[in-house]
TrEMBL record:
Residues 136-379 form the Tubby C-terminal domain. Pfam families: Tub, Tub_N. The lineage of its organism: Eukaryota, Metazoa, Chordata, Craniata, Vertebrata. It is found in: Cytoplasm; Secreted. It comes from Varanus komodoensis (Komodo dragon). This is Tubby-like protein. The keyword Ligase does not apply. Residues 41-89 form the Tubby N-terminal domain. GO terms for cellular component: cilium; cytoplasm; extracellular region.
Length: 385
């Protein structure tokens, strides 16, 4: 009986306290509003993407034979079907591989010993025993490494901060997971972490392999490995290595204004006589890839740029020949080439489904460099869009 009275007394006390009754309701309301906000943001992003895909100035795969220049002059081009092919200027042409990047490598103090025959994709004999070593090593000469990037936007957080997964494609149709990337939530500028683990994408995790950092406008990006920031060197062990700068990417407003294909400049370290990447470990801002490029100090550096698409009068759109590897129009579609040899496509990236993209790269890029460049293209750019 006493227990029953105490229980009744506690119940009456709970009912007569208005603040205790209101607390669960307020918490539920805040949770509901947060959910609605995430859903609204997700729908706005999806609506914007659907509208962008319908614009005429998206970069499309070239399926037409007659392409005209911007000033109305006809430039005949062979008819290229939207399927896998090895035409005169394709990624898998051996003559391009012999000529590719000769000038840049001479600048860096070497001439690449290119294979006499090229391959259309990564061979079955090339095994990936050590994933970390594979993603950091330049692609084998004469080989086009074909990969696929999948964007995961399911869930409230991933709708705004998606996860990206890179898989290696092999000739037998199988896929091998290589890396994942995600945008950090609490960063002053865009910052992407890259990991060898599909789940653990933390900065302090054992699988952390690199990161991508942008400026405030999202027009300049720098790619680092997992080394130590030189500003933090006094607080870490002496045995710790300073981080390498692997890539610098610059986006510029296109010549048409704020719509149409982007203009990209990519700066990467040069190669030594053993066809290995030269280590660039800046100790201060003056030694960074971006600063050296701005000061025209290109010693041991290679400059690449995106191939500008041609305007097609019949389809009223910009087109590039992706040789069947890209099937959907997108402002993110691009090809990275050498200035001296525009037929040598170092990196090719484009959409094949709403959240699926192909990524094909070859020497002198490594998988981490290629993946990081593609991640930078996903980021919003206030000055370029």
């Amino acid at each position: 009986m006493v227990i029953g009275k105490q229980g009744a007394h506690a119940s009456n006390k709970e009912c007569t306290n208005p603040s205790m009754r209101a607390a669960p309701s307020l918490s539920a309301l805040l949770s509901f509003l947060s959910t609605c906000l995430h859903i609204l943001q997700r729908r706005i992003i999806e609506k914007k993407q659907r509208r962008k895909r319908q614009e005429l100035l998206m970069v499309q795969a070239n399926t037409d034979a007659k392409v005209k220049g911007r000033h109305g002059r006809h430039k005949p081009e062979e008819r290229i079907p939207l399927m896998e092919s090895c035409s005169e200027h394709s990624l898998c042409n051996s003559e391009c591989l012999r000529r590719g990047l000769v000038q840049e490598c001479r600048t860096a103090g070497l001439r690449p010993d290119l294979s006499p025959s090229g391959e259309s994709s990564i061979p079955l004999s090339l095994k990936v025993d050590d994933v970390e070593a594979f993603v950091l090593k330049p692609a084998p000469q004469g080989i086009v490494v074909q990969c696929r990037i999948t964007r995961d936007r399911k869930g409230m957080d991933k709708g705004i901060f998606p996860f990206y997964y890179l898989h290696l494609e092999t000739e037998n149709g199988k896929k091998r997971f290589l890396m994942s990337g995600r945008k950090r939530k609490k960063s002053k500028t865009s910052n992407y972490l890259i990991s060898l683990d599909p789940i653990d994408l933390s900065r302090d995790g054992d699988s952390f392999v690199g990161k991508v950092r942008s400026n405030v406008l999202g027009t300049k990006f720098t790619v680092f490995d997992n080394g130590i920031n030189p500003d933090k060197k006094p607080f870490v062990p002496e045995t710790a290595q300073l981080r390498q700068e692997l890539v610098a990417i610059c986006y510029e407003t296109n010549v048409l204004g704020f719509r149409g294909p982007r203009k990209m400049t990519v700066i990467i370290p040069g190669m030594n006589s053993e066809n290995e990447r030269i280590c660039i470990r800046p100790k201060n801002e003056h030694e960074t890839l971006l600063t050296r490029y701005q000061n025209r100090n290109m010693q041991n550096l290679i400059k690449l740029q995106n191939k500008m698409p041609a305007w097609n009068e019949e389809t009223q759109s910009y087109v590039l020949n992706f040789h069947g590897r890209v099937t959907q129009a997108s402002v993110k579609n691009f090809q990275i080439i050498s200035e001296e040899d525009p037929d040598y496509i170092v990196l090719q990236f484009g959409r094949v489904a709403p959240d699926v993209f192909t990524m094909d790269y070859q020497f002198p890029l490594c998988a981490l460099q290629a993946f990081a460049i593609c991640l930078s293209s996903f980021d919003g750019k206030l000055a370029c869009e």
